[in-house]
Amino acid sequence: MSETGAGSPFDVDGTPQIFPSDRSPSHERGICKFFFSKPYLIAFSFLITFLIGVLQVTNKNNDASSFATHPANMRVFIIATVIYSFAFATTLSLPPDTSSSLLAGFVAFFSGALSAISVIWMFLPLWLGWLISVMWFLLLVMVGCDLYRYSFQILYQKCKEKLLDTLNRFMEHNLTEQQHVPV
């Protein structure tokens, strides 16, 4: 049985945390630190480039372009690649281990995967393409739910800090006014 608690990458019920609290040590930041790290995102760059090369070689003798034979796949590929490029650039520009960096890594990871899947789909039988797409979507939903929960944890922490700060200022202000009032 694994440990659970504030610094653990697991919830109380033992399920792994995708986006654990910011108070946990950086080496225990959860699954997201592993999957959304820069080496994985760089690997998508090479995979996408490789798949485009394979697509060009397989369509070399065809008269029709991939945009004519697989228009939906190519549109998804272009849109996902543009999103991946911007999200990956954002990930590189942000300091690591921040909420913004995790969010940009999330977007880059899933858009890069969608980009690769949309090209791979052209080489596979239809049923296998659907199977891979469904698995990608289920992983997206699972991680997206944890991202949603994590974002509300961060929002709650920020609101709580602001509220406590405002209350402390109000109490200090009242104390200083009471000291200046003549009795």
Automatic annotation (TrEMBL):
Q: What's the domain of life for this entry?
A: Eukaryota
Q: Which InterPro entries match?
A: Ca-permeable_cation_channel (IPR053258)
**Keywords, ordered alphabetically:** Membrane, Transmembrane, Transmembrane helix
Question: Which parts of the sequence are annotated with region: Disordered?
Answer: 1-25
Its transmembrane ranges are 39-57, 77-95, 102-124, 130-148
Keyword 4Fe-4S appears in the UniProt entry: no
Report what the protein is called. Uncharacterized protein
Organism name: Liquidambar formosana (Formosan gum)
